Automatic annotation (TrEMBL):
It comes from the Bacteria. It holds the Pfam family DUF1275. Keywords: Membrane, Transmembrane, Transmembrane helix. The keyword Aminoacyl-tRNA synthetase does not apply. It comes from Rhodococcoides kyotonense. The keyword NAD does not apply. InterPro entries: DUF1275. Signal peptide: none annotated. This is DUF1275 family protein. The chain crosses the membrane at residues 15-32, 66-84, 96-115, 121-141, 176-197, 203-221.
Amino acid sequence: MTDGPRPTVATSESVRLGVLLAAVGGFVDVYTFMTRDGVFANAQTANVVLLGIDAASGHWASARGYLPPLIAFVLGVFTAEAVTRPAVARIVRRPVRAVLVIEILVIAAVGFVPASAPNAVVTISISFVAALQVTTFRVLVDQAFSTTMTTGNLRSFSQAVFRRVVAGHKDAGVRAANFGTVIAGFLGGAIVGALAVRLLDVRAAWVAAGMLVIALALFLFDEWRDVPRVRDPRV
């Protein structure tokens, strides 16, 4: 009796999906930077720092302006967690795909927001989407990673390279390749985002929405291929 095919990694944790979502992360960061006065809406570190600076200076009105994207990010995390709760899961049978659909709808809607609209309309929306994505997609094969920022991925890549070169761990070489690919995807998304904004201005958001449609299609494609995979109960 022979063993059946060895299950491969779940689609939600695959390098293919990780690279694509990282590309969306890079794209969206460039999009808000170029169309919304130099704002990076994916990560909230800058908002917390600027909030602290204004609070220390007594500029309370300005400080309050940093609260909406922070609150939107928290609500995005709450939403991503809520769709996996048993009570909600009975209604939302495939929460990971549901998150992608929400992302697609929000980012597509952002493409309709004119440049004359307040920046907060877009940055709050993107903060919400970033929280959804970073909370839902946290594992690359067997390692924690992020699709919306690259600092942690760069650290993991560097550690893996060191362990492969210095300690000779072969599995570290695979991890280095995985993280290197994701970092390259983030950079590639940033480049495509810059080009798209130059051509399409605020409507470039629709390109990012299209990339997320491809990400959603990966789940359907893998389901259609019926390749044995490690099961992710969320998808």
